[in-house]
Design goal:
- This protein is of the alpha+beta class.
- The chain has a domain of about 110 residues.
- Helices cover about 35% and strands about 10% of the residues.
- The chain has 7 helices and 4 strands; from the N terminus they run H-H-H-E-E-H-E-E-H-H-H.
- A 4-stranded antiparallel sheet has the order 1-2-3-4.
- Helix 5 packs parallel to helix 7.
- The chain is globular and about 55 Å long.
- The chain binds zinc ion.
- Zinc ion binds next to loops.
Amino acid sequence: MNTESRAEFEAFISLPPHEKEISRFPDDGSSELAGLYGPAACAGGDNEVGFVNQAAAIDPRAFHHSKIELDPTHELPFISRKALKRVKNPLPAPEHCRYCGPRWSAFIGHHEEVYNGRSYGDWPYVYLCENCGAYVGLHPFTDIPLGTMADEGLRRARKNNKQRFNLMMKASGMKRGEAYEWLAGAMGIPVVECHWAWFEIEQCEKAGKLCSERGK
Ligand SMILES: [Zn+2]
């Protein structure tokens, strides 16, 4: 990592969680950051529906005393312990494609492989199925997936319904964290589980409908 991207990384990591810039990431639900760095991450563990024991909800590697060494052939350049610590309630890395089954491993791929040769942000990686093309982005500077791998239909549902959420948020004047708290409540799920990249198609549609109704 060169000095410039290191500086950018430090700046990103030091931002208050709710201020992390999300516009630098492709808005297709594969890289949903807002929910994950939203109220659950900001609440410091005292949100009512979240984990009682926050430490249990953080990747234990965040507390390693030594650097996290990666295999030299690993696709990721490094993993930041500080960045791991930022991710509350991490999902495990996918081992195989949820659509194609255990015969098809989930590889770490580069954005260029899924975004027509383009790359976004400082952490341009995804978990990818080389058979069907399902993918999901990673939390910056970690190997933690932002959600579950999604095929084209699911990505479209996440993207379209998240747009309805953004419109509702704008119309209501709610801050992002407040909007996620509201949505979680309306859907009857814990706010720590309220992330577009975690939703299945039905949940996307339910969330989008709730947002549109509220926005009226
Ligand atoms: Zn697949």
